[in-house]
Amino acid sequence: MPAAEPIRIGKDTKEELKKLKVHPRETYDDVIKRLIEEYKRRRHEKD
């Protein structure tokens, strides 16, 4: 696993990310990566 970097997010953002987990043990990093990939996929479909 690459080195981790701390980031600051609001409590409300953390709660939203928590709701998006597909498994309780999924990391926030994995959730964010999945969201980024979905964003890229949808953006690519529009082009």
Description:
This protein is mainly α and 47 residues long. It has one domain. 60% of the residues lie in helices and 0% in strands. It has helices at 11-19, 28-46. The radius of gyration is 13 Å and the shape is globular. The mean pLDDT is 94.
Could you give a short description of this structure?
By secondary structure, the chain is mostly helical. The protein has helices at 11-19, 28-46.
Q: Could you tell me the strand content as a percent range?
A: under 5%
Distance between the termini: 33 Å
H and E string? HH
> How many separate structural domains?
1
What percentage of residues falls in helices of 4 or more residues? 55-70%
Question: How much is the radius of gyration in Å?
Answer: 13 Å
Give start-end ranges of low-pLDDT stretches.
none
Write the SSE topology.
Blueprint: H1 11-19, H2 28-46
Characteristics:
single chain; globular; 2 helices; 47 residues
